[in-house]
Write a structure and sequence with these properties.
The complex is a heterodimer of chains A (about 150) and B (about 170).
Chain A lengths: L4 H10 L9 H9 L3 H13 L3 E8 L1 H4 L1 E7 L6 H9 L4 E7 L5 E7 L2 H15 L4 E3 L3 E4 L11
Antiparallel strand pairs in A: 2-4, 2-5, 3-4
Helix pairs in contact in A: 2-3
Chain B lengths: L2 H12 L8 H9 L3 H14 L2 E8 L8 E7 L6 H9 L4 E6 L11 E7 L2 H14 L7 E12 L16
Antiparallel strand pairs in B: 2-4, 2-5, 3-4
Helix pairs in contact in B: 2-3
The chains are: A alpha+beta (about 150), B alpha+beta (about 170).
Chain lengths: ~150, ~170
Amino acid sequence: MDLDLLSRQLIDRFQHGMPLCAEPYLEMARVLSCSEAQVLACLQRLELAGALSRVGPVFEHSRAGASTLAALAVPAERLHQVAERVSQYPEVNHNYGREHHYNLWFVLTGPDRRHIERVLEELERDTGLAPLDLPMLTAYRIDLGFALGENP
Amino acid sequence: MTAAQALALRRLLEQGLPRVSRPYQALAEQIGTDETQVLGQMRQWHAQGLFRRIGLVLNHRALGFTANAMLVLDVPDALIDEVGQRLGHAPGISLCYQRPRRLPQWRYNLFCMVHGRQRERVEAQIRQMLEAHLLSDLPHQLLFSSHAFKQCGGRFAPLPSGVPAHG
Protein backbone atom coordinates (compact mmCIF):
# COMPACT_ATOMS: atom_id res chain seq x y z
CA MET A 1 0.00 0.00 0.00
CA ASP A 2 1.07 3.63 -0.45
CA LEU A 3 1.49 5.49 2.80
CA ASP A 4 0.50 9.08 3.42
CA LEU A 5 2.80 11.35 5.40
CA LEU A 6 1.02 10.94 8.74
CA SER A 7 1.08 7.13 8.43
CA ARG A 8 4.83 7.20 7.77
CA GLN A 9 5.42 9.54 10.70
CA LEU A 10 3.32 7.41 13.04
CA ILE A 11 5.16 4.24 11.99
CA ASP A 12 8.64 5.73 12.13
CA ARG A 13 8.10 7.55 15.41
CA PHE A 14 5.97 5.09 17.40
CA GLN A 15 6.76 1.63 16.12
CA HIS A 16 9.48 1.10 18.72
CA GLY A 17 7.82 2.94 21.56
CA MET A 18 4.73 4.99 22.30
CA PRO A 19 3.88 7.03 25.40
CA LEU A 20 2.67 5.07 28.44
CA CYS A 21 0.15 7.54 29.88
CA ALA A 22 -3.59 8.00 30.27
CA GLU A 23 -4.04 9.64 26.86
CA PRO A 24 -1.36 8.13 24.60
CA TYR A 25 -3.00 9.05 21.28
CA LEU A 26 -3.28 12.69 22.36
CA GLU A 27 0.40 12.67 23.31
CA MET A 28 1.32 11.12 19.94
CA ALA A 29 -0.74 13.84 18.21
CA ARG A 30 1.17 16.53 20.14
CA VAL A 31 4.50 15.09 19.02
CA LEU A 32 3.37 15.06 15.37
CA SER A 33 1.54 18.42 15.57
CA CYS A 34 -1.84 17.07 14.57
CA SER A 35 -5.08 16.22 16.35
CA GLU A 36 -5.90 13.11 18.35
CA ALA A 37 -8.79 12.43 15.96
CA GLN A 38 -6.32 12.42 13.04
CA VAL A 39 -4.08 9.92 14.83
CA LEU A 40 -7.00 7.60 15.59
CA ALA A 41 -8.35 7.90 12.03
CA CYS A 42 -4.90 7.15 10.59
CA LEU A 43 -4.51 4.03 12.77
CA GLN A 44 -7.95 2.94 11.62
CA ARG A 45 -6.94 3.37 7.96
CA LEU A 46 -3.74 1.38 8.49
CA GLU A 47 -5.70 -1.40 10.16
CA LEU A 48 -8.33 -1.55 7.42
CA ALA A 49 -5.54 -1.74 4.83
CA GLY A 50 -4.10 -4.71 6.74
CA ALA A 51 -0.86 -2.87 7.53
CA LEU A 52 -1.44 -2.53 11.28
CA SER A 53 -2.11 -5.66 13.29
CA ARG A 54 -2.52 -3.86 16.62
CA VAL A 55 -1.25 -1.11 18.91
CA GLY A 56 0.18 -1.97 22.30
CA PRO A 57 2.77 -4.12 24.03
CA VAL A 58 4.82 -6.84 22.36
CA PHE A 59 5.51 -9.38 25.09
CA GLU A 60 9.01 -10.60 25.82
CA HIS A 61 8.77 -14.37 25.19
CA SER A 62 11.19 -15.37 27.91
CA ARG A 63 9.40 -13.28 30.55
CA ALA A 64 5.83 -13.76 29.41
CA GLY A 65 5.96 -17.55 29.20
CA ALA A 66 7.40 -20.15 26.86
CA SER A 67 7.71 -20.16 23.09
CA THR A 68 9.26 -22.18 20.31
CA LEU A 69 9.71 -22.19 16.56
CA ALA A 70 8.30 -25.39 15.11
CA ALA A 71 8.43 -26.84 11.60
CA LEU A 72 6.66 -29.64 9.76
CA ALA A 73 7.56 -31.39 6.50
CA VAL A 74 4.12 -31.64 4.92
CA PRO A 75 3.34 -33.44 1.65
CA ALA A 76 2.50 -30.64 -0.82
CA GLU A 77 -1.07 -31.82 -1.38
CA ARG A 78 -1.79 -31.60 2.37
CA LEU A 79 -0.07 -28.28 3.06
CA HIS A 80 -3.17 -26.07 3.18
CA GLN A 81 -5.15 -28.54 5.25
CA VAL A 82 -2.37 -29.03 7.80
CA ALA A 83 -1.67 -25.26 7.88
CA GLU A 84 -5.32 -24.64 8.73
CA ARG A 85 -5.17 -27.19 11.52
CA VAL A 86 -2.05 -25.52 12.93
CA SER A 87 -3.55 -22.00 12.66
CA GLN A 88 -6.60 -23.06 14.69
CA TYR A 89 -4.52 -23.08 17.86
CA PRO A 90 -4.62 -19.78 19.74
CA GLU A 91 -1.07 -20.71 20.81
CA VAL A 92 0.13 -20.26 17.20
CA ASN A 93 0.85 -16.67 16.26
CA HIS A 94 2.98 -16.83 13.11
CA ASN A 95 2.39 -19.62 10.62
CA TYR A 96 4.23 -19.46 7.28
CA GLY A 97 4.66 -21.71 4.31
CA ARG A 98 8.33 -21.78 3.28
CA GLU A 99 10.16 -23.18 0.27
CA HIS A 100 11.95 -26.15 1.82
CA HIS A 101 11.49 -29.83 2.69
CA TYR A 102 10.30 -28.42 6.03
CA ASN A 103 7.63 -26.30 4.40
CA LEU A 104 5.45 -25.16 7.32
CA TRP A 105 6.99 -22.97 10.04
CA PHE A 106 5.10 -21.62 13.03
CA VAL A 107 5.74 -19.92 16.37
CA LEU A 108 4.02 -21.41 19.42
CA THR A 109 3.57 -19.46 22.65
CA GLY A 110 2.10 -20.57 25.96
CA PRO A 111 2.24 -20.07 29.70
CA ASP A 112 4.96 -22.70 30.15
CA ARG A 113 7.10 -25.26 28.33
CA ARG A 114 4.83 -28.20 29.22
CA HIS A 115 1.91 -26.45 27.51
CA ILE A 116 3.94 -26.10 24.30
CA GLU A 117 4.97 -29.74 24.42
CA ARG A 118 1.33 -30.82 24.77
CA VAL A 119 0.35 -28.84 21.66
CA LEU A 120 3.23 -30.36 19.67
CA GLU A 121 2.29 -33.88 20.81
CA GLU A 122 -1.32 -33.27 19.83
CA LEU A 123 -0.31 -31.95 16.41
CA GLU A 124 1.89 -34.98 15.81
CA ARG A 125 -0.98 -37.32 16.72
CA ASP A 126 -3.45 -35.43 14.52
CA THR A 127 -1.26 -35.04 11.45
CA GLY A 128 1.07 -38.04 11.69
CA LEU A 129 3.96 -35.61 11.07
CA ALA A 130 6.84 -35.15 13.53
CA PRO A 131 7.46 -31.47 14.27
CA LEU A 132 10.89 -29.94 14.70
CA ASP A 133 10.92 -28.15 18.07
CA LEU A 134 13.46 -25.29 17.97
CA PRO A 135 13.18 -23.08 21.07
CA MET A 136 15.40 -20.00 21.20
CA LEU A 137 18.70 -20.55 23.05
CA THR A 138 20.34 -17.13 22.60
CA ALA A 139 18.98 -13.89 21.13
CA TYR A 140 21.61 -11.86 19.27
CA ARG A 141 19.02 -9.49 17.85
CA ILE A 142 15.35 -9.17 18.82
CA ASP A 143 14.31 -5.94 17.12
CA LEU A 144 10.87 -6.59 15.67
CA GLY A 145 10.43 -3.16 14.15
CA PHE A 146 11.97 -2.13 10.85
CA ALA A 147 12.63 1.12 9.03
CA LEU A 148 10.44 1.68 6.00
CA GLY A 149 13.29 2.99 3.88
CA GLU A 150 16.22 0.74 4.75
CA ASN A 151 15.28 -2.73 3.56
CA PRO A 152 15.95 -4.03 0.05
CA MET B 1 -5.13 -5.16 41.54
CA THR B 2 -5.93 -8.83 42.17
CA ALA B 3 -4.04 -11.66 40.46
CA ALA B 4 -7.18 -12.51 38.48
CA GLN B 5 -7.51 -8.90 37.31
CA ALA B 6 -3.82 -8.80 36.32
CA LEU B 7 -4.25 -11.99 34.30
CA ALA B 8 -7.39 -10.62 32.63
CA LEU B 9 -5.48 -7.43 31.81
CA ARG B 10 -2.66 -9.40 30.17
CA ARG B 11 -5.11 -11.31 28.05
CA LEU B 12 -6.74 -8.07 26.89
CA LEU B 13 -3.34 -6.48 26.17
CA GLU B 14 -2.35 -9.40 23.93
CA GLN B 15 -5.16 -8.31 21.63
CA GLY B 16 -3.96 -4.70 21.55
CA LEU B 17 -4.94 -1.41 23.18
CA PRO B 18 -8.42 -0.01 22.53
CA ARG B 19 -8.19 2.94 20.17
CA VAL B 20 -10.14 5.45 22.24
CA SER B 21 -8.93 8.60 24.02
CA ARG B 22 -8.37 6.80 27.31
CA PRO B 23 -7.52 3.19 26.44
CA TYR B 24 -6.40 2.26 29.97
CA GLN B 25 -9.67 3.59 31.37
CA ALA B 26 -11.52 1.35 28.89
CA LEU B 27 -9.43 -1.68 29.92
CA ALA B 28 -9.96 -0.86 33.61
CA GLU B 29 -13.74 -0.90 33.13
CA GLN B 30 -13.55 -4.33 31.51
CA ILE B 31 -11.71 -5.86 34.45
CA GLY B 32 -13.48 -3.96 37.22
CA THR B 33 -10.77 -1.57 38.41
CA ASP B 34 -9.69 2.00 37.69
CA GLU B 35 -7.36 3.71 35.23
CA THR B 36 -4.72 4.56 37.87
CA GLN B 37 -4.42 0.89 38.87
CA VAL B 38 -4.06 -0.23 35.26
CA LEU B 39 -1.42 2.39 34.44
CA GLY B 40 0.49 1.52 37.62
CA GLN B 41 0.46 -2.17 36.67
CA MET B 42 1.59 -1.33 33.11
CA ARG B 43 4.55 0.73 34.37
CA GLN B 44 5.53 -2.04 36.76
CA TRP B 45 5.43 -4.68 34.00
CA HIS B 46 7.34 -2.40 31.67
CA ALA B 47 10.06 -1.83 34.30
CA GLN B 48 10.25 -5.61 34.91
CA GLY B 49 10.90 -6.27 31.22
CA LEU B 50 7.65 -8.07 30.43
CA PHE B 51 7.34 -6.00 27.23
CA ARG B 52 9.85 -5.78 24.41
CA ARG B 53 8.21 -2.55 23.36
CA ILE B 54 4.87 -0.78 23.39
CA GLY B 55 4.00 0.62 20.00
CA LEU B 56 2.54 0.04 16.56
CA VAL B 57 2.72 -3.62 15.52
CA LEU B 58 2.83 -3.78 11.74
CA ASN B 59 2.05 -6.39 9.16
CA HIS B 60 5.09 -6.08 6.91
CA ARG B 61 3.52 -8.02 4.02
CA ALA B 62 0.78 -5.44 3.62
CA LEU B 63 3.46 -2.74 3.57
CA GLY B 64 5.17 -4.33 0.57
CA PHE B 65 7.80 -6.36 2.42
CA THR B 66 6.81 -9.61 0.76
CA ALA B 67 10.30 -11.13 0.35
CA ASN B 68 10.54 -12.57 3.85
CA ALA B 69 13.53 -14.88 4.16
CA MET B 70 14.86 -17.00 6.96
CA LEU B 71 18.61 -17.57 6.68
CA VAL B 72 19.76 -20.67 8.58
CA LEU B 73 23.43 -21.52 9.15
CA ASP B 74 25.33 -24.46 10.60
CA VAL B 75 27.89 -22.66 12.79
CA PRO B 76 30.55 -24.57 14.76
CA ASP B 77 29.56 -24.37 18.44
CA ALA B 78 32.80 -22.63 19.39
CA LEU B 79 32.02 -19.76 16.98
CA ILE B 80 28.28 -19.36 17.53
CA ASP B 81 28.41 -16.31 19.81
CA GLU B 82 30.88 -14.45 17.61
CA VAL B 83 28.99 -15.18 14.38
CA GLY B 84 25.64 -14.47 16.07
CA GLN B 85 26.80 -11.08 17.33
CA ARG B 86 28.20 -10.12 13.93
CA LEU B 87 25.21 -11.17 11.83
CA GLY B 88 22.77 -9.87 14.47
CA HIS B 89 24.17 -6.40 13.96
CA ALA B 90 24.42 -6.56 10.17
CA PRO B 91 22.14 -4.07 8.34
CA GLY B 92 18.79 -5.50 7.26
CA ILE B 93 18.77 -8.40 9.77
CA SER B 94 15.71 -8.00 11.99
CA LEU B 95 16.06 -11.11 14.18
CA CYS B 96 19.04 -13.34 14.95
CA TYR B 97 18.64 -16.34 17.27
CA GLN B 98 20.60 -19.44 18.22
CA ARG B 99 18.37 -22.54 18.25
CA PRO B 100 19.21 -26.21 18.89
CA ARG B 101 20.20 -28.62 16.13
CA ARG B 102 17.94 -31.68 15.73
CA LEU B 103 20.18 -34.25 14.10
CA PRO B 104 19.85 -35.96 11.74
CA GLN B 105 16.79 -34.00 10.52
CA TRP B 106 18.06 -30.47 11.13
CA ARG B 107 21.69 -29.33 11.28
CA TYR B 108 21.28 -25.53 11.41
CA ASN B 109 21.77 -23.64 14.70
CA LEU B 110 21.69 -19.94 13.74
CA PHE B 111 18.57 -18.24 12.38
CA CYS B 112 18.40 -14.74 10.85
CA MET B 113 15.29 -13.01 9.49
CA VAL B 114 15.42 -10.57 6.59
CA HIS B 115 12.41 -8.63 5.33
CA GLY B 116 12.71 -7.10 1.89
CA ARG B 117 10.61 -5.99 -1.05
CA GLN B 118 12.33 -8.03 -3.77
CA ARG B 119 13.58 -11.56 -3.60
CA GLU B 120 16.61 -11.00 -5.85
CA ARG B 121 17.78 -8.07 -3.75
CA VAL B 122 17.38 -10.03 -0.51
CA GLU B 123 19.40 -12.90 -2.02
CA ALA B 124 22.12 -10.49 -3.13
CA GLN B 125 22.19 -8.74 0.24
CA ILE B 126 22.62 -12.03 2.11
CA ARG B 127 25.32 -13.23 -0.31
CA GLN B 128 27.24 -9.99 0.18
CA MET B 129 26.80 -10.09 3.94
CA LEU B 130 28.18 -13.63 4.17
CA GLU B 131 31.11 -12.73 1.91
CA ALA B 132 31.89 -9.60 3.93
CA HIS B 133 32.04 -11.68 7.12
CA LEU B 134 33.99 -14.51 5.40
CA LEU B 135 31.14 -16.91 6.20
CA SER B 136 30.16 -18.04 2.68
CA ASP B 137 31.71 -21.46 3.28
CA LEU B 138 29.47 -22.24 6.26
CA PRO B 139 26.64 -24.62 5.32
CA HIS B 140 23.54 -22.42 5.01
CA GLN B 141 20.12 -22.23 3.38
CA LEU B 142 17.71 -19.43 2.58
CA LEU B 143 14.03 -20.22 3.19
CA PHE B 144 11.69 -17.72 1.54
CA SER B 145 8.10 -17.60 2.74
CA SER B 146 5.59 -18.80 0.18
CA HIS B 147 2.41 -18.09 2.12
CA ALA B 148 1.43 -16.36 5.39
CA PHE B 149 -1.25 -18.58 6.93
CA LYS B 150 -1.48 -16.67 10.21
CA GLN B 151 0.16 -13.63 11.80
CA CYS B 152 -0.86 -12.18 15.16
CA GLY B 153 0.57 -11.48 18.61
CA GLY B 154 1.58 -14.17 21.10
CA ARG B 155 -0.95 -15.58 23.56
CA PHE B 156 1.02 -16.26 26.72
CA ALA B 157 -1.45 -15.70 29.54
CA PRO B 158 -3.21 -18.92 30.53
CA LEU B 159 -6.96 -19.03 30.05
CA PRO B 160 -9.13 -18.89 33.17
CA SER B 161 -9.60 -22.41 34.54
CA GLY B 162 -12.51 -24.29 33.06
CA VAL B 163 -12.09 -22.82 29.58
CA PRO B 164 -10.49 -25.26 27.13
CA ALA B 165 -7.16 -24.05 25.75
CA HIS B 166 -8.29 -24.72 22.21
CA GLY B 167 -11.41 -26.03 20.59
